[in-house]
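Researcher: We plan to redesign the surface later, but first we want a full-length starting point. Tokens attached.
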């Protein structure tokens, strides 16, 4: 990681190395790379030594990281690289101030067809209707799906409503031969919670 910051930032500022500068940048966002990734360039520039050029370059690098992860999911069986899925979800939806519900639609080889937001809600809730999810699965000719939503509160725990919705979606999708592989709950402070690992899918 130190090599990355030295390569990217190249130089620090008077009395500070590139690594020291990187540490200050991360501290500004409580050590959370996701918050950093979602911050506007102007916020990054509040750190002395991070100018407009460096802030724009850094955000571009983080966007490339997201696209690289999507590329991996497009060309490989996502089940062979679950970390890529978790990393993408973490970068994509964890920092959002409101709940979103997203789907990763997969083909018969578990390769990504499309990722998309199914609904957007408030700070504490969002709503997804099984009928609409099934309709979308059929439109995309999907064979499987991974669902995810974020908890802006920071608690990666499944509520009774989360579990109930997951079961309803699984039952509806089973009727059209679409497999629900997992449902992740994503926060900025913890690794994504897999409901499949909890035996809830």
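Model: Full-length starting sequence:
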């Amino acid at each position: 990681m130190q090599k990355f910051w030295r390569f990217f930032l190249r130089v620090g500022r008077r009395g500070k190395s590139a690594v020291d500068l990187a540490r200050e940048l991360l501290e500004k966002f409580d050590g959370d790379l996701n918050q950093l990734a979602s911050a506007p360039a102007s916020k990054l520039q509040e750190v002395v030594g991070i100018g407009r050029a460096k802030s724009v370059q850094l955000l571009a690098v983080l966007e490339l990281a997201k696209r690289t992860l999507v590329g991996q999911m497009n060309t490989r069986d996502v089940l062979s690289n679950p970390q890529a899925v978790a990393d993408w979800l973490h970068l994509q939806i964890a920092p959002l101030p409101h709940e979103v519900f997203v789907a990763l639609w997969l083909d018969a080889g578990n390769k990504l067809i499309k990722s998309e937001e199914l609904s957007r809600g408030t700070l504490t809730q969002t709503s997804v209707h099984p009928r609409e999810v099934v309709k979308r699965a059929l439109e995309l000719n999907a064979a499987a799906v991974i669902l995810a939503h974020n908890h802006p509160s920071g608690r990666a725990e499944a509520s009774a409503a989360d579990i109930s919705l997951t079961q309803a979606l699984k039952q509806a999708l089973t009727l059209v031969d679409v497999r629900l592989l997992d449902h992740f709950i994503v926060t900025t402070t913890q690794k994504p919670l897999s409901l499949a690992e909890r035996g809830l899918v």
